[in-house]
Structures are given as C-alpha cells and as structure tokens.
C-alpha cells in the first residue's frame, strides 16, 4: 500500500504523523484530528481515515492533543504512600476503572512524604482531564491555581475542605470501632496511630475518642513511628509493657494491626481473650486464616464507582462538585475482636 505521494508504507518512519494518515486517506489534516477527537466527520471519511490509520499503524498523540485544548483522556493519580497494601489495592481498582471508562491513568508518585504540591504541578504539564489526590496534602495556592485553570481535582479517601471527591466516613468508622470494643466488654482501649497526622488519622481518632467519652472510659494512645508492620509491632510492644496494659487495640490500619498481633504473640497474650485487636481497611491479608483480623471495611468498590461518576460527569459538562461524598464503612468481625 502506498501514500498519495507514492511512498511505500514500509519505508516510512516508525513515528507516523496525522498528516501521513491524511495524505493516504485523501482528506485534510483537520479531518484526521476531528476523527480521533471530539469533532464530526462523515461516515465515509471516518472509514477512509481508520483504514489509513490501520495500514500505517497510526496512534494519536494525546500530548499533542492537549496543546490544542482537546480532552486527552488522561487522569492523573497522585500518590503519597507507596509501601502500603491498602494503597496498592486502591490503585489497582482505580486503574481498572479508568481503563474501563476508555481513559488512561498517569500515575505520579511523591517521594517527599505527604507533600504533593510538586506532583500536582507536574500533572498539569500533561494537560490531564482530571487529577485525583490519593494521599498527602496539596497546598492552598496550588488548589487556587487548579481552580483558575479549570482543572478538575478530586480527593480520594480524604475530606479536605474546598475539594470535591469521595471518602470513607473515617470519623464514623472510628466511632463504630470504639463502640464495638466497648460493647464487647473492653475497658482499656488504646489507639495505635501513625506519626503523620493525616486527615483520615485525625478523623478515626476523633471517632474513637467520642465513643470512649460516651462510655466514660479513658483514652490511651501510642504512635507508630512508621506506617508499617514493624511500626505497629514496636508501638504495641510499648503498650504491652505498661503496668496498665490495654485490653484492646484499635489500630489506624490493618498493616499496623498485623504488627500489633505479632507483638501480642511475643508477650504470650491470647487474642482476643487477653487483648482484642481491631484494624481498618480490610486488606486481603486480614481475612487470611493465620490472622483472622477484625477490621473496618471502607467499601472501596463504592468509592471508586462514585469517583468515576464524578470524573465522567465533568467530561459531560457537569459543574465540579466541591463536596466530599462519604461512603459508610462496614464492621467485619473475625477472630481477633469479637
């Protein structure tokens, strides 16, 4: 097959341009752009363009499309925590949902912990259709710039004022977990938290504190220096070494709770007879028979579905939502807290 100028297809450069497609199809360059963009072309023209594209192996350049103000189909995912099973699960579900919506994800991890300002600005370089902040903090001046540029930005799993998005109701989750432990007869309940005072951490802590206050019980707390199995182990070890050792641990997340279970085994404490352990996130490992970890499930499928509906709504011209859509958590009772 040859282009209109007689050049054999096989001798053309590997990076095929829209102009080459136009030449082969016998149409204008703008017709090719409209065919692969949001514009209108006749059915006959579309068939010719697609046939030429197939023959040449042409794929539209989404970055070049961004320079013309067209939708790129790109959704930027900004990550603050990279070594967390819950983050891995959220990312997997978002990647699948974005692909099923015929979009593509641009994953931008942040290496300076809990500061996503530079990552957000980097996402703007690609003229993405939407930005999803999955953790950390975006500065106020960046939020203001995003609004000025009319770039939709959503938060996932957070409830920061001024940005729309979706999140588990973390305060309610803390309240539910606290009431469950109180109702099961626990009287010395400690919160094992992470050092970083993220939005989710503050809200879960507040919910637990409210439940303990309602029950007239003291609030105990121990920080995990690292949001990890090792951090949970070390924090629980310090708690179990106290003279007023707690009889229940409510952990910020499941990975910290798994470390706490290991600490209980080190102290030869029976779970749940001597100490109950409750996590948050309900990661797949929580249900493994070796752990049987009771946990609060954030209903990720519902969160992802609602977020994608917001992104698709923006693409259809809906005004951006400045409110966070809260999803109710679910208490999953297993062996470690009953």
From TrEMBL:
Superkingdom of source: Bacteria
PROSITE patterns, A to Z: HTH_LACI_2 (PS50932)
Key words of the record: DNA-binding, Transcription, Transcription regulation
GO terms assigned for molecular function: DNA-binding transcription factor activity; transcription cis-regulatory region binding
CDD domains to which the protein is assigned, alphabetical: HTH_LacI, PBP1_LacI-like
Domain HTH lacI-type residues, every copy: 16-69
Pfam family, one: LacI
Protein name: Transcriptional regulator
Species this chain originates from: Azospirillum palustre
